[in-house]
Amino acid sequence: FTQVQVLGTVMNIKTSFGFILPNTAGLQFLLIILLLIIKTFYDYRYIYLMLPFLIFLYLTGARTSQGLVLIAMIVFLALKISGIYTFIERHLVGIIMILFISTVVFSIVTVVMFNDGVMQTLINKLNTAMSGRLKLGATIMDNYGLTMFGQHIPYSLVDNTKVTWVKTSYLWLDNAYLKIIFNFGCIWLIVYLPGISATCKKNEIFW
After folding, report:
1. Using CA atoms, how far apart are residues 195 and 207, in angstroms rounded to an integer?
2. pLDDT tens digits along 77-98
3. How does pLDDT run across 11-28, given as a tens digit for each residue?
4. Apex CA 106: angle with CA 70 and CA 168, to 5°?
5. How many angstroms separate the Cα of 202 from the Cα of each of 93, 183, 198, 206?
6. Which residues contact 16 (CB under 8 A, 6 or more apart)?
7. What does the alpha-carbon distance between residue 110 and residue 198 come to, in Å, rounded to a whole number?
8. Residue 171 has what DSSP assignment?
9. How far is the CA of 18 from the CAs of 26, 43, 166, in angstroms?
10. Which H or E run includes 12?
11. Whole-angstrom distance, CA of residue 174 vs CA of residue 101
């Protein structure tokens, strides 16, 4: 990517293809590619249609969307193995629940232990890989903390109409799980997770 230097910081210029953010463009291409992966499961000719969207996704520099496409392709190849296909088909909801709970736990643990000396090196590396998103979560944790019933947090985004902006004024969460927990409280977890489990068991599709 083309690079520019702003206030001493080297930044990559990503392509947004007319969307407000490169990540928004990446999300659109991600959805198209996922649909084409599903179609490719039945007809390999859709691979050729997928190629330009993979190039577009690369140009956006949207790493999360790129990572999800890679995971989707690995799952696609794995599903071609009959044993794996049968296992996933039987335990799909259980797998989704495990991934969901693991993501929530990871989100909470990383912000709670952000300043912990034992895991500082590892968390700093993760924070760098995630473009400072863990630090933003930790900042909100330090200033507001977790509550049972949630609280109002004055999030602040960069004003795109201004030529310059103050870095310290930026306060945002790109993590939907943390945003729900901070804004609506820990009660959300106490009610929501057992609710999902009960619904799955009622339909006899859990595990």
Report:
1. 16
2. 888 888 888 888 788 778 878 8
3. 567 788 888 888 889 999
4. 95
5. 12, 30, 6, 8
6. 22, 24, 25, 60
7. 28
8. B
9. 12, 31, 26
10. strand 9-13
11. 18
